């Protein structure tokens, strides 16, 4: 039976190359996956695996050297029309990994959050824009803080500012690039719950990038595992964590700490010499 879910983003045979000539390095190799409207699609892998590169290529921050990125059926990598570029800018946003370096320390929070509106909603008056900024900060739990600077906030609060900046233009698709990796454990659950709440309230679709499978299992509907630039396994979150096929996926699962000391001591990466590949479902 054919899958009747609406496809929002489709990545076909994607390749991303850094450098040229003898120094060229292919960071992403023949990546294929589909993201359905309203879901959270997880992309997990260790540092240097190519997961952030894929996210930035989808956002058109990085050029692609092969393959296609389709958004609502239209190719958005490479040269595109001005109208499609405007649509992509409005409907796709990114939450960056480091909430400190991604925010302008010399600008007040109100300007940082509202800057995107100046580009995608030039029809708004200053008062209307200020009201939308106020509402966006209220949505992420930071009311009445528009006149402060980023350095006056904690790491978790800065990440909330980044989320407000992405949400204010009312996007349909958000790429969250390790949005909780720089946060304390006590703050992580708050940010994850905020993202899930916003998804239910606004019907947002996420590409959630992380290196921690325990986090992925909590927030994702489906998970793709990337290793050395290649997607090695893709399945539903529960299926992947319960019945991993590829040895790299199993090694990621074995790295998740267990609360039971006896089970933690007995744990070992099993069947390291096995091989397998589960394709897209």
Describe this structure in words.
The protein is 36% helix and 23% strand. It has 281 residues and is of the alpha/beta class. The strands form 2 sheets. It has a 6-stranded mixed beta sheet with strand order 6-7-8-3-9-10, sandwiched between helices. Helix 3 (109-120) crosses helix 4 (126-139), helix 3 (109-120) packs parallel to helix 5 and helix 5 packs parallel to helix 6. The radius of gyration is 20 Å and the shape is globular. Residues 269-277 have low confidence and may be disordered.
List the helices and strands and how they pair.
Blueprint lengths: L6 E12 L6 E12 L3 E5 L6 H8 L7 E6 L2 E2 L6 H10 E4 L13 H12 L5 H14 L15 H13 L5 E5 L7 H18 L2 E6 L2 H7 L2 E6 L2 E7 H6 L4 H8 L6 H6 L15
Parallel strand pairs: 3-8, 3-9, 6-7, 7-8
Antiparallel strand pairs: 1-2, 1-4, 4-5, 9-10
Helix pairs in contact: 3-4, 3-5, 4-5, 5-6
Summary, kept brief:
The chain is an alpha/beta fold. The protein is 36% helix and 23% strand. The strands form two sheets. Strands 6-7-8-3-9-10 form a six-stranded mixed beta sheet, with helices on both faces.
The strand order across the widest sheet is 6-7-8-3-9-10
Strand count, sense and closure of the main sheet? 6 strands, mixed
Using the CA coordinates, give the radius of gyration.
20 Å
* Structural class designation: alpha/beta
* Beta-strand residue percentage: 15-25%
The low-confidence parts are 269-277
Mean pLDDT: 87
Q: Distance between the terminal alpha carbons, to the nearest Å?
A: 12 Å
| Envelope shape | globular
DSSP E strands, number: 10
User: Order of helices and strands, N to C?
Assistant: EEEHEEHEHHHEHEHEEHHH
With helices defined by DSSP (H or I, 4 residues minimum), what is the helix count? 10
């Amino acid at each position: 039976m054919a899958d009747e879910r609406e496809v929002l983003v489709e990545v076909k045979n994607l390749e991303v190359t850094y450098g040229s000539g003898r120094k060229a390095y292919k960071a992403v190799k023949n990546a294929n996956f589909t993201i359905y409207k309203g879901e959270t699609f997880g992309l997990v892998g260790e540092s240097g695996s190519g997961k952030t590169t894929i996210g930035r290529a989808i956002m058109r921050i990085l050029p692609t050297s092969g393959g296609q990125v389709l958004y609502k059926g239209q190719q958005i990598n490479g040269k595109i029309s001005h109208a499609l570029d405007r649509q992509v800018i409005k409907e796709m946003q990114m939450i960056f990994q480091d909430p400190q370096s991604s925010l302008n320390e010399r600008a007040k929070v109100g300007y940082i959050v509202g800057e995107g509106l100046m580009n995608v909603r030039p029809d708004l008056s200053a008062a209307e824009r200020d009201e939308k900024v106020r509402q966006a900060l209220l949505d992420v739990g930071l009311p009445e803080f528009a006149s402060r600077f980023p350095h006056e906030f904690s790491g978790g609060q800065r990440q909330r500012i980044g989320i407000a900046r992405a949400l204010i233009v009312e996007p349909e698709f958000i790429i969250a690039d390790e949005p909780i990796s720089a946060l304390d454990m006590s703050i992580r659950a708050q940010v994850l719950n905020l993202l899930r709440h916003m998804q239910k309230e606004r019907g947002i679709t996420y590409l959630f990038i992380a290196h921690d499978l325990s986090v992925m299992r909590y927030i994702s509907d489906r998970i793709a595992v990337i290793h050395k630039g290649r997607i090695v396994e893709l399945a539903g979150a529960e299926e992947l964590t319960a019945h991993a096929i590829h040895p790299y996926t199993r090694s990621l699962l074995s790295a998740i700490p267990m609360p039971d000391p006896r089970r933690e001591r007995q744990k070992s990466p099993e069947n390291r010499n096995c091989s397998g590949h589960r394709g897209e479902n």
